Amino acid sequence: MLAAKTELKNAEKVKQYLLKHHLLHPEYLLVKEFGFLYFPLVKKIKIPGAEVIDARFSFPAKQKPVTVEQLLTAKLTKEELEHLPKSQEVVGTILILEIPEFLQKKEKVIAQAYLQSHKNITTVVRKDKMHQGTYRLRKVKVLAGINTKETIHLESGVKIKLDLEKTYFSARLAHERLRLAQQVKPKEEILVMFSGAGPYVLVLSKHTDAKKIVGIEINPLAHRYAVDNVVLNNCKNSTVHLGDVYKVIPTLSGKFDRIVMPLPKTGEEYLPLALTKARAGSIIHLYGFLQTTEVQQHRQKIKALALKAKHPVRILRTVECGSFSPGTSRFCFDLKVLK
């Protein structure tokens, strides 16, 4: 096999050259021997800092990742394999397993396969109960791996420490959080209602030049994580408050250029309150779980609520940002306050 032979002192430079020009053989590992490194090549070409030779030894093959399907071939029927979802939600090092009800009798076997095939996963859980209650919390059951429900999730360059049972969090909203960040202008003052463990606060702090970001969360357990996360990510322009938004918002001084309302089930009920902290030209991001056929009616409801609060709004855009259940999606209404 063709190989690039180089001294150790030139190894990194040669490696970067090979990567840049797509010359490394994808199926084999390099070899270190007698003070030299040998990089397996896909073709013969002159390489700065290395001698191209025809190696007389074998290169070790890279271990190909084992798929979930391969691990379960002997344990599930063909029909059962076909009903395995193509993707699963991963929060930090925890995979949240969602499988059809008829497969639950084999959930531990399936969980073990996911654990074995995903090297960055240390725990597999399944949802035991749906999100419920004032804090929108869910129960999960550990099926495989380390017995923990706490993790640090990496998203868009920030670290989000959380416990799956103590705070509401969806990793699938990562793109949506970046979408909001991309709209923020320098020196904006931003209010995040229902801020949870701080994902919106953290991403907005990391990816914008906002002057000030304020989060409010009623769940004391989630708030504790938010406080830690602000410190963990060195978010010097961010503060988080514990309490009911109806009680905290009146205590905040001034108004905000942007208000984020990531409470999708009853968020519109808080719109009149949010408008008291908006100035003319402010942007509000209001979320809702809706069927497609309900969107237009919900748009009219939002406008009516704003008009009644004497702060009319224009809906700039309606963005579908994820599925909630069959037939129902999460929508974000980007509103501009007119006065």
Description:
With 339 residues, this protein is of the alpha/beta class. The chain has 3 domains: 2-54, Alpha-Beta Plaits (2-Layer Sandwich), CATH 3.30.70; 68-148, Met-10+ protein-like domains (GMP Synthetase, Chain A, domain 3, 2-Layer Sandwich); 170-337, Vaccinia Virus protein VP39 (Rossmann fold, 3-Layer(aba) Sandwich), CATH 3.40.50.150. It is 25% helix and 34% strand. It is built from 10 helices and 17 strands. It has helices spanning 11-20, 68-72, 78-82, 107-117, 174-181, 199-207, 220-232, 245-248, 271-275, 295-308; strands at 2-7, 31-33, 36-40, 51-54, 89-91, 94-97, 123-132, 137-145, 150-155, 158-163, 189-193, 212-217, 238-242, 256-261, 278-290, 313-325, 328-337. The strands form 4 sheets. The chain has a 7-stranded mixed beta sheet with strand order 13-12-11-14-15-17-16, with helices on both faces. A 4-stranded antiparallel beta sheet has the order 2-3-1-4, covered by helices on one side. β14 (256-261), α9 (271-275) and β15 (278-290) form a beta-alpha-beta unit. α5 crosses α6. The longest helix has 14 residues, at 295-308. The model has no long low-confidence stretch (mean pLDDT 94).
